[in-house]
């Protein structure tokens, strides 16, 4: 058991995460405030205590999209960016990658998408200056919107690839369609120099992860935890040096696992998979990076050496440019 001083040092160390969704990180009070400003009634998506209310993963997607409905322009996304980076910085996060959907930011129209990105990036630049947190974006096709809409999202990504938009990563309902249905979009992004990730192995089993790697050519997998059910796929991840963006609190909250003690993150790490830790949609799942670290210490007895390894995995797999990587590594290593 780690003593209290060492626990405190781990909780207070600088942190980096690779798997968040910009809309999903919206504090519920922020969304409620926007809805009130716009006279939009979305009270059904909140509990009495003000937190988000949903029954299961599919209902979660519905609540997520309802919350997103009040984010109607670039100015709201700029305010949202400031709100989520403020909360992340308060939990010691110095580097964050976030999924941003062109579908929700201008209806996948390239010109409108650029306006949204300009506003988001301005807010991110101010947060980096004022709070010391760096944000990079991953353009995100929504799987259950289908392959044709994904092509439009990928075109937006390709047109804005650079220091801020650094990757393409599919989200949405994993039970809709196949990974290979979206190969055209991922090929377009790859040709534009973007890094690639996709959600897989959260709700479907190990074959979904294999398909993501083989059909889309991704270097990271969002979640991926169910690979533990097929060690051949686990070993494929190790051989190909694929990194998993694991969100333990999300997986437990949504019922992929009943409790953290059943979560395979430690088994995957011990076998040699490159695992990282992220919060996914933190206010929806009532988590923070500080809480994730506390829970991993409590359940798996992770110590500073293991969190050092997590930091290395995270920055090795980060999609940002070399200069940003070097700067963030120094911040993490200083702890």
UniProtKB/TrEMBL annotation:
Its cofactor is Zn(2+). Pfam families: A_deaminase (PF00962). Gene3D superfamilies: Metal-dependent hydrolases. It comes from the Bacteria. Its EC number is 3.5.4.-. Residues 14-332 form the Adenosine deaminase domain. This is Aminodeoxyfutalosine deaminase. The lineage of its organism: Bacteria, Pseudomonadati, Pseudomonadota, Alphaproteobacteria, Rhodobacterales.
């Amino acid at each position: 058991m780690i003593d209290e001083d060492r626990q405190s040092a781990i909780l207070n160390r600088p942190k980096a995460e690779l798997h968040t969704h910009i809309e999903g990180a919206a504090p519920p009070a922020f969304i409620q405030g926007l809805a009130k400003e716009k006279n939009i009634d979305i009270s059904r998506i909140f509990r009495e205590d003000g937190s988000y209310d949903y029954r299961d993963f599919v209902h979660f997607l519905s609540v997520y999209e309802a919350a997103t409905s009040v984010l109607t322009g670039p100015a709201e996304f700029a305010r949202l960016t400031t709100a989520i980076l403020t909360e992340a910085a308060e939990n010691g996060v110095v580097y964050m990658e976030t999924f941003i959907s062109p579908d929700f930011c201008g209806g996948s129209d390239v010109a409108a998408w650029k306006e949204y990105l300009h506003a988001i990036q301005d807010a991110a630049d101010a947060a980096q200056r004022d709070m010391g947190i760096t944000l990079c974006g991953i353009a995100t096709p929504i799987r259950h919107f289908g392959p044709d809409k994904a092509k439009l999202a990928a075109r937006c990504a390709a047109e804005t690839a650079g220091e801020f938009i650094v990757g393409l990563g599919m989200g949405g309902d994993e039970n809709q369609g196949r990974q290979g249905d979206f190969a055209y979009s991922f090929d377009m992004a790859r040709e534009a120099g973007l890094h690639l990730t996709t959600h897989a192995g959260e709700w479907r089993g190990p074959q979904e992860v294999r398909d993501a790697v083989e059909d889309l050519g991704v270097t990271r997998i969002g979640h991926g935890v169910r690979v533990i059910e097929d060690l051949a796929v686990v070993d494929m991840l190790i051989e190909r040096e694929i990194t998993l963006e694991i969100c333990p609190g999300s997986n437990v909250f949504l019922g992929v696992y009943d409790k953290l003690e059943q979560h395979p993150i430690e088994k995957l790490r011990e076998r040699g998979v490159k695992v990282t830790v992220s919060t996914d949609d933190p206010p929806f799942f009532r988590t923070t990076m500080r809480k994730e670290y506390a829970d991993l210490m409590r359940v798996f007895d992770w110590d500073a050496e293991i969190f050092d390894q997590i930091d290395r995995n995270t920055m090795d797999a980060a999609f940002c440019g070399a200069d940003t990587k070097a700067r963030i590594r120094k911040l993490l290593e200083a702890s």
